[in-house]
Design a protein that fits this description.
The protein has no helices and 12 strands. By secondary structure, the protein is an all-beta fold. The strands form 2 sheets. Strands 1, 2, 5, 6, 7, 8, 9, 10, 11 and 12 form a 10-stranded antiparallel sheet that branches.
Length: 202
């Protein structure tokens, strides 16, 4: 524990733009753009000492997070396409150095097909390289993270029986079994993960 730890104080400014449209044959589309800035005084950070195997929460002064997120989706008959991009930057204001724990930029794209009570989808996620670190410290407990790609697939089916709805869901995450690590953690991400779910609405 850190007896000198003080609580954070933050303020956020955010702007959001929503667009909806209707194309040929009633195919709908939409786009959302969000931009934000957060300034946090007494930012609480986790300090990991790998030598002594200890972890302590400490204050980092004034930290500014700013970024944007874009999401768009378009339906074309029974097929829908979606894509998103997330961009985050974090700065330790007084030191004029990046916050090493800031997440990597991320891009995702998905395609989904629906037919009657069936739907099948494919998602691609790309996490970009994160090398924006505070290199003025003698000890950095966050390392650069290489970029990686993940592919996920799913199959859904809804069965109606005597007014009861049953949903069957089969999902496989990281189908290529890519060895990866998200930024800010020393732990490897999940390997190939296959799940089956059944949900009954009574």
């Amino acid at each position: 524990p850190n007896p000198d730890l003080v609580p954070e104080e933050s303020d956020t400014v955010e702007a959001k733009l929503l667009l909806d449209w209707q194309a040929v044959a009633n195919d709908e589309g939409s786009m959302t753009v969000s931009v934000y800035r957060t300034r946090t005084q007494n930012f609480v950070d986790q300090n990991v000492d790998l030598v002594n195997n200890t972890t302590q929460f400490v204050n980092r002064g004034l930290v500014e997070h700013q970024g944007y997120e874009v999401y768009a989706e378009q339906e074309v008959g029974a097929i829908s396409f979606g894509t998103s991009y997330t961009h985050v930057r974090a700065l330790k204001v007084f030191e004029n150095q990046p916050l090493s724990q800031a997440p990597a930029d991320q891009w995702a794209a998905n395609i989904k097909y629906r037919k009657d009570k069936w739907s099948v989808g494919l998602q691609r996620q790309e996490f970009f390289k994160q090398d924006r670190l505070d290199r003025t410290n003698d000890f950095i407990n966050v390392q650069e993270t290489p970029g990686f790609e993940l592919y996920n697939v799913y199959l859904n089916h809804r069965l109606i029986w005597h007014s009861y709805a049953t949903d069957f869901r089969l999902r496989a995450n990281n189908v290529m079994d890519v060895k990866h690590r998200r930024h800010g953690t020393p732990l490897l991400g999940p390997a190939r993960d296959i799940r089956f779910e059944m949900k009954i609405a009574l």
